[in-house]
Write a structure and sequence with these properties.
With about 400 residues, the chain is an alpha+beta fold. It is about 30% helix and about 30% strand. Helix 2 links the parallel strand 4 and strand 5 (about 110-115). GO terms for molecular function: L-glutamate N-acetyltransferase activity; L-glutamate N-acetyltransferase activity, acting on acetyl-L-ornithine as donor.
């Protein structure tokens, strides 16, 4: 049973957080600069891309987050500040310094994020303008604008909030994210910012973030490409005033479940907004020997370009599914595998005991004609399961990425 309530809101729903989103001119027309600010210094945790090619803001934040504290996040879209050498790192430091000056806080308490085109240095005059405008525009209603300002090829904003109680005290978690292409995380998502007014220890916050990321952002794929800028940051400022949440307690479990919902929701929104996507795809692996086996298999299927194109073409080509399971690294017996396709139009078994089973192609086509498709892989071997989410591969994905820079 869920011990939280989903509410309308985002990163400014928790107490003590302000945000803004402005146009600085980095992009041609849309908002491109966001600022998130906690009125008091917060406990903080973050995860970053495991790509060996890391953007300058990632390298900077990896150092800053070591003390587990932060008070602000400054982010620009339209330019990734990746593969920009020492100049890029210095520019990221300047972003933090300029934001700290405007907010009258320590520069070490400002985390920096960028997203957009790789290999181009930041237009620092525009960055300075963005910081000034964003600082002036900070408000309790600014979460929606911040969610818009971090978007690149996204077609819609991604935001969510939940509330729950800890020993009678109301606590809120809010989040925003961006991501549409270059999505195959192995840490977090493209950019995801989470805020909470929970009073929680640094250790508990860090553990909750790592565990929920494993079951949310790490389980999505749009195109199999891992970004140079992937970052997720959570700030917990304690403004709710609840008794401190510590590892191994019932209150930690409540917080964990609420955070897991927030991160799963944002992850699925990213998958639904995949570049050129026409269908949302959920892959569920059940009855595996271990959770790791289930995770490996689910991620392999959702990441398969051949499975994605089959879903786009509404073709019940189950051979591509079992092939993706086969190279996943999961431990299973082919002779025990059953595969089902499911949507609002029904459920059909397309593979039994690892091989052919008669099924209606017309029924399968009808099931795959829906916008949301579920692939169920049953290992018939154990008790563990995993969920992964993604989207189909359409012609528009090639169009979008064939001219991304222009």
């Amino acid at each position: 049973m869920e011990n939280f309530e989903v509410i309308e809101g985002n990163i400014t729903s928790p107490k003590g957080f302000l945000a803004s989103g402005v146009f600085a001119g980095i992009k041609k027309a849309k908002k491109d600069f966001a600022l998130i600010y906690s009125e008091k210094k917060a406990n903080a945790a973050a995860l970053f891309t495991t790509n060996k090619v890391k953007a300058a803001p990632v390298l900077l934040d990896m150092e800053k987050i070591k003390n587990g504290e932060a008070q602000a996040i400054v982010a620009n879209s339209g330019n990734a500040n990746a593969c920009t050498g020492q100049k890029g790192y210095e520019d990221a430091c300047s972003m933090a310094f300029m934001a700290a000056e405007k907010l009258n806080i320590d520069k070490d308490d400002v985390l920096v994020c960028s997203t957009g085109i790789i290999g181009v240095t930041l237009p620092m005059e525009k960055i300075a303008k963005g910081i000034e405008l964003a600082a002036q525009s900070l408000s309790k209603d600014g979460g929606k604008e911040a969610a818009k300002a971090i978007l690149t090829t996204d077609t819609f904003s991604k935001e969510v909030a939940v509330k729950f109680t800890v020993k009678g005290v109301e606590v809120t978690i809010g989040g925003i994210a961006k991501g549409s292409g270059m999505i195959s995380p192995n840490m977090a998502t493209m950019l995801s910012f989470i805020t909470t007014d929970a009073n929680i220890t640094k250790d508990a916050l860090n553990k909750a973030l790592k565990e929920t990321v494993k079951r949310s952002y790490n389980m999505i794929s749009v195109d199999g490409d891992m970004s140079t800028n992937d970052t997720i940051i959570i700030l917990a400022n304690g403004e709710a005033g609840n008794p401190v949440i510590e590892n191994g307690t019932y209150e930690y479990e409540i917080f964990y479940n609420a955070l897991l919902y927030v991160n799963k929701y944002l992850a699925k929104q990213i998958a639904k907004d995949g570049e050129g996507a026409t269908k949302f795809m959920e892959v569920k692996v059940i009855n595996a020997l271990t959770e790791e086996d289930a995770i490996l298999a689910a991620k392999s299927v959702v990441n398969s370009n051949l499975v994605k194109t089959a879903i786009f073409g509404e073709d019940a080509n189950w051979g591509r599914i079992i092939a993706a399971v086969g190279y996943s690294g999961a431990n299973f017996s082919q002779d025990s595998v059953d595969i089902y396709l499911k949507s609002n139009k029904g459920l059909i078994k397309v593979c039994e005991n690892g091989g052919y089973v008669p099924f209606s192609e017309d029924k399968a086509k009808e099931i795959l004609s829906e916008k949301e498709i579920s692939i169920v892989v049953d290992f018939n071997a154990g008790k563990y399961e995993a969920l992964a989410w993604g989207c189909d591969f359409s012609y528009d994905y090639v169009k979008i990425n064939g001219s991304y820079r222009t």
